[in-house]
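This protein record is not my work; I was only asked to verify it. The record follows directly below this note.
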Amino acid sequence: MNLKAVGSSDGKSVDLSWDPSADPKNADGSAGSGVAGYEVYDQAGKKIADVTDPKTTVTGLTPGTEYTYTVKAKDKAGNVSAASAAVKVTTGPAADTVAPSAPANVVATPAPTSVSLTWEKSTDNVAVTGYEVYDSSGKKVADVTTNSATLNGLTPDTDYTVTVKAKDKAGNLSGASTPVKFHTGKESTGGEGGEYAFKVSGSTFLKAPNGSAPLTGGLIASVDGATKKYTGDLTLNPTTGDFRILGFLPVRAGLVMTPQGKVTGTMDGKLVADVNVKVGVPSLSFFGIPLAGGEKCTTRTPSALHLESPGAFDPVKGSKISGTYKLDELENCDGLEPLLSAFTAGDGNTINLNVVGR
């Protein structure tokens, strides 16, 4: 009969099909009564279907389970054939109905007509396949496969709000991230003064735990053409670095450097920047084992950053800037503040950034 079985995508049914049977002639040579139908049996020998066509669908099955079926033909006289060769089929997995986790820590780095967005990767019971970005009206404005996106065509000097959702292969969509608000800068007129947007990249070295972490972000600066002074907004994205406690114990720590207020300085020849930054340690792990951290685990007081370029600064081409800073003791770190502070607090920490015009 050439019995075939095909499982459904949700694992709850199986389609069976086979070649039609023929009713042989009687012993005296007369024609048989003709095939009247087919009986389908499961592995326990129970008849589960009685059909006239050479196909049927078995429903109500359990996903991820093996089943065995046979088929018998019967004629109009009530004669039943021998069973077909058995066919085995394993139903597929249950349909994925679990949505990914909502994206966290969405960071916006705006320019006059665009914004760069980054966020922490979401998790899913199977796999995250992409992310969707929505504006304040609920309109989808980006669909990406990585945890970053750039929105172009924005209006200068304008407030915007966006959210991000994660999705999986089954089409499940996560809840929205916490809305992130940003303000695009004013369009530069190309003179010495005006609004400038920069990309920021580099690293910071922490002396006490003897390790570094990469840094990325952005700077929007409004420059007074007469005085060459500026004020601006510095954004540094969350990062992760590898460090050593007691000089030899390897730990991996998440770092969040959050500017407290505006960055100020001058662009009179070289670039000078001053800003206070609070440093957070949202995660700390030893050989992958979480030890401490949390959103509230931060330095007691902000660190004063003073950064300077080594020479003349070109607002278009950009330049390197660097400086040193001191870290205060940590607080709100799950009771491990004295231990963590002993290996993180202190001066001699350095920061080196490349500031390049967008």
